[in-house]
Amino acid sequence: xxxxxxxxxxxxxxxxxxxxxxxxxxxxxxxxxxxxxxxxxxxxxxxxxxxxxxxxxxxxxxxxxxxxxxxxxxxxxxxxxxxxxxxxxxxxxxxxxxxxxxxxxxxxxxxxxxxxxxxxxxxxxxxxxxxxxxxxxxxxxxxxxxxxxxxxxxxxxxxxxxxxxxxxxxxxxxxxxxxxxxxxxxxxxxxxxxxxxxxxxxxxxxxxxxxxxxxxxxxxxxxxxxxxxxxxxxxxxxxxxxxxxxxxxxxxxxxxxxxxxxxxxxxxxxxxxxxxxxxxxxxxxxxxxxxxxxxxxxxxxxxxxxxxxxxxxxxxxxxxxxxxxxxxxxxxxxxxxxxxxxxxxxxxxxxxxxxxxxxxxxxxxxxxxx
Length: 370
Known about the structure:
The chain is an alpha+beta fold. The protein is 34% helix and 19% strand. It contains twelve helices and 13 strands. The strands form four sheets. It has a five-stranded antiparallel β-sheet, with helices on both faces. A three-stranded antiparallel β-sheet has the order 2-1-13, with no helix packed on it. A three-stranded antiparallel β-sheet has the order 9-10-11.
């Protein structure tokens, strides 16, 4: 929260930009670069998508969304790291197992999964967005197996939901037996083995919701869609409408609005701050790091009509690649604004002079009762 409060303020320092032609002066403060800051995701997202473009296969892709029942949300809230890890494992193993099943596809899929924890009203709602290849690499040789309907049909959503339900509930039961779950607050009663078993029985009888959206038209469409889901936070600045005596008003969906008190708005926003070091974007199957060098290159070779060169060794794959784009050039490509050119006269070049850090505001004491 301190990062977001001080982002682009004098606390983080900055630069004095001076035009060498007209003498126009302007101050630009440094950003916090926190991954939860709604103002610091644009360039990072663009770089990430550009890197993914080299790995996305030229085939159909599906968008699969895994959600969890309302009854599990208190347990997830008090066991964030463990629950999120199990959620990733259950969803990815569900897709890969169905892909390997010869009755379904009989091939190794490629999966990119992104964790989201919010609704449009900032309520806690953990779910996974998965981008899945519309086919996979056959295990018996260099052969690409296309999903049924020429890649336009993946798996029955009821089958996906049931298998995902079984894998996640079984994983939670094992985690409880190993003492890896904490029970506090609204989920404190689950410390009782009988209550936990009753919850499991109820959830096994309840249908779970899994969405499988129509396939993308091509790889370029996948790039654009991935950018919408990878580097997002609970709410963007564009959705903020007003701050007044009633609280914070922001847009939700279908043209509707919600108003929360300032304290409740901040509380909900902080619900979606991930644990330190937690990776919310993960790759499985063909897109896993272990398969990028050979299996993924082989799949691309099978999907590309033109002949491809021999697969490079792992060391070459890590060292070769285009030179990194500077952030100013990337900003110009995204917005059309050249930050090296004076925006006042349009002719001069901007010269940057560093500014010292300002003293950060002193936070109130935790024991201050005033």
